[in-house]
Design a protein that fits this description.
The chain is 46% helix and 20% strand. It contains 2 helices and 2 strands; from the N terminus they run αββα. It has helices at 7-17, 48-69; strands spanning 29-35, 38-44. Strands 1-2 form a two-stranded antiparallel ribbon. Helix 1 packs across helix 2 (48-69). The protein is elongated, with a radius of gyration of 13 Å.
């Protein structure tokens, strides 16, 4: 699976997920960026359970966004 996606699809997914990074607990820090066809999500949290939940959520959001744009 290549991490690179087309610029239009990547930009659309980035813009869809960017607002989600504003809803976070005080112990969490989430940022998203899109550069050269790669969406990067940086996650920082104090506990493993939160990290697992955040990673699973963003994987699902990325997957569903990508699939809905490529139907």
């Amino acid at each position: 699976l290549s991490p690179e996606i087309s610029s239009n699809v990547g930009n659309t997914i980035f813009n869809a997920l960017k607002p989600e990074t504003k809803f976070q607990a005080s112990s969490e820090k989430i940022s998203i960026s899109f550069d050269n066809g790669v969406i990067s999500i940086d996650i920082s949290t104090n506990d493993l359970q939160s990290m697992r939940a955040i990673v699973n959520t963003y994987i699902r959001l990325l997957s569903l966004s990508y699939l809905s744009l490529n139907l």
